[in-house]
């Protein structure tokens, strides 16, 4: 007799390549999670708004930080059992590219 245990995504690991950047800098975000069945999609949120038009199965994004300010990012991982949410990552973007010291 076999018992299959199903779990929603957990143990989320979410990171940005940098958390303080100059405007127009490209940064990368990565997200991973454990789950049974495996995670089938990841979503990236900026200030509680979905960043991408859809989901991706890799948990990797990159983007140009074109606007100055402070942004809160989170990752959501989904499998057929449920959803897991990461801790937030704060990214500060210097709005003055010419005078940026970051």
Main beta-sheet annotation: 6 strands, mixed
**Tell me, what's the shape?**
elongated
> What's the CATH C level?
Mainly Beta
**Poorly predicted regions:** none
Q: Report how far apart the termini are.
A: 59 Å
Query: Would you tell me which CATH topology applies?
Result: Immunoglobulin-like
Tally of distinct domains? 1
Range of helix content: under 10%
Main structural class = mainly beta
The oligomerization state is single chain
Tell how many strands the DSSP assignment holds: 9
Give the rounded overall mean pLDDT. Answer: 90
CATH architecture: Sandwich
* SSE pattern, N- to C-terminal: EEEEEEEEE
Question: Strand-residue fraction?
Answer: over 45%
**How many DSSP helices?**
0
- CATH homologous superfamily label: Immunoglobulins
What Rg, in angstroms, do the CA atoms define?
16 Å
Describe the structure.
By secondary structure, the protein is an all-beta fold. The protein has a single domain, classed as Immunoglobulins (Immunoglobulin-like), CATH 2.60.40. The protein has strands spanning 7-16, 20-22, 25-36, 41-46, 49-50, 60-65, 69-78, 83-85, 89-94. Strands 2, 4, 5, 7, 8 and 9 form a 6-stranded mixed sheet that branches. It has a 3-stranded antiparallel sheet with strand order 1-3-6, with no helix packed on it.
Question: What does this entry show, briefly?
Answer:
This protein has strands at residues 7-16, 20-22, 25-36, 41-46, 49-50, 60-65, 69-78, 83-85, 89-94.
């Amino acid at each position: 007799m076999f018992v299959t245990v199903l779990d929603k995504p957990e143990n989320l690991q979410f990171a940005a390549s940098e958390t303080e950047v100059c405007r127009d800098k490209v940064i990368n975000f990565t997200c991973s999670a454990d789950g049974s069945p495996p995670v089938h999609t990841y979503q990236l949120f900026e200030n509680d708004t979905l960043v991408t038009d859809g989901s991706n199965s890799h948990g990797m994004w990159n983007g140009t930080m074109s606007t100055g300010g402070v942004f809160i990012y989170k990752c959501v991982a989904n499998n057929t059992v449920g959803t897991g949410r990461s801790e937030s990552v704060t990214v500060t973007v210097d709005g003055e590219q010419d005078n940026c010291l970051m």
